[in-house]
């Protein structure tokens, strides 16, 4: 397990029961370096959407725990936020939660001269993702997918 994976999994293990108490769900935890700065990000959600106050409550609890346990060696910035629109689907629960929703898929290589597809997420497994489009069902191999995320309309 890498240091990054350890930080993410320890944070996730702490957050799951805390979020359950507040009727929130954990969307993702990531420990990433951007422009030379480390960020520990927790994405939380709930029925009807997350408010700024919700993020502040969880941020305070998480920050106190991180100060006590002090297991992250680097200096970093803690962020707690909602996953937001256009969030990528990464984990099994993301796919499970998004069945029946409209998604956008971007491929690494063009398929029939096209790299981007939009449709309703119909099915998924370890190897494939199936969407329903106006032209019918399309099945993509997971390794060919550069990005899959919830579609959003403006």
Automatic annotation (TrEMBL):
Organism encoding this protein: Ventrimonas faecis
Organism superkingdom: Bacteria
Matching PANTHER family: RIBOSOME MATURATION FACTOR RIMP
Domain Ribosome maturation factor RimP C-terminal positions: 89-154
Subcellular location: Cytoplasm
Protein's recorded name: Ribosome maturation factor RimP
Function: Required for maturation of 30S ribosomal subunits.
InterPro entries the UniProt entry points to: Ribosome_maturation_RimP, RimP_C, RimP_C_sf, RimP_N, RimP_N_sf
CDD domains tied to this protein: YlxS_C
Residues of the Ribosome maturation factor RimP N-terminal domain: 17-85
Coiled coil: none
Family (UniProt): Belongs to the RimP family.
Keywords: Cytoplasm, Ribosome biogenesis
């Amino acid at each position: 397990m890498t240091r990054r994976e350890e930080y993410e999994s320890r944070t996730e293990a702490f957050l799951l029961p805390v979020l359950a108490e507040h009727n929130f769900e954990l969307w993702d935890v990531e420990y990433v370096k951007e422009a030379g700065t480390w960020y520990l990000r927790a994405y939380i959600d709930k029925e009807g959407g997350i408010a700024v106050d919700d993020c502040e409550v969880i941020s305070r609890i998480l920050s106190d725990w991180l100060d006590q346990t002090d297991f992250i060696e680097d200096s970093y910035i803690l962020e707690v936020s909602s996953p937001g629109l256009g969030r990528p689907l990464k984990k099994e629960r993301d796919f499970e939660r998004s069945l029946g929703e409209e998604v956008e898929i971007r491929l690494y290589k063009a398929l029939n001269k096209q790299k981007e597809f939009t449709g309703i997420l119909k099915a998924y497994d370890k190897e494939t993702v199936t969407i329903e489009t106006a032209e019918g069902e399309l099945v993509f191999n997971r390794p060919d997918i550069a990005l899959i995320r919830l579609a959003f309309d403006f």
